[in-house]
Specification:
Length: 135
């Protein structure tokens, strides 16, 4: 499936467009529709705190042992797993660093989004393509 880069707000210019993927996350009977930033530079996928709460995850400071890098490095995180639906493709299990921060975007990174999907960026055209991994 090929998609256009998008902005978060109508006031943003085309130069603010990024590869954001509409994705439905599910944990049991709870589901949340989000726009995940497809980030080939992110080592892990990241789930903001409020999105995790909406999915029914329960924060436990004792399990907040993940150490993130960069601008998210000062926030505690713990690992969670959610089922993800991308377009008409079959659901996949995605692993996230659930971070105790609401300002972080949903990031789709190498662990394990890029292990489940092949992604091709056409940045000069402000487009990207996502398809399930081969075989």
């Amino acid at each position: 499936m090929r998609l256009k880069f998008s902005t978060l707000h109508p006031s943003q210019s085309i130069g603010d467009s990024l590869p954001r993927l509409p994705i439905t996350l599910r944990n049991g009977e709870k589901l949340v529709k989000v726009a995940g930033l497809v980030d080939s530079g992110a080592t892990v996928s990241v789930l903001p705190y409020q999105v995790g709460l909406q999915l029914g995850f329960i924060w436990d400071d004792r399990k907040a042992t993940l150490r993130l890098a960069g601008n998210l490095g000062s926030h505690p995180a713990q690992g969670v797993i959610a089922m993800a639906e991308v377009g008409e493709y079959a659901s996949v299990r995605l692993v996230f660093a659930w971070i105790k921060n609401d300002n972080a975007p949903v990031l789709l990174g190498h662990t394990n989004f890029f292990k489940e999907f092949d992604v091709c960026f056409f940045s000069s055209q402000l487009e990207f393509e996502v398809k399930p991994k081969a075989g």
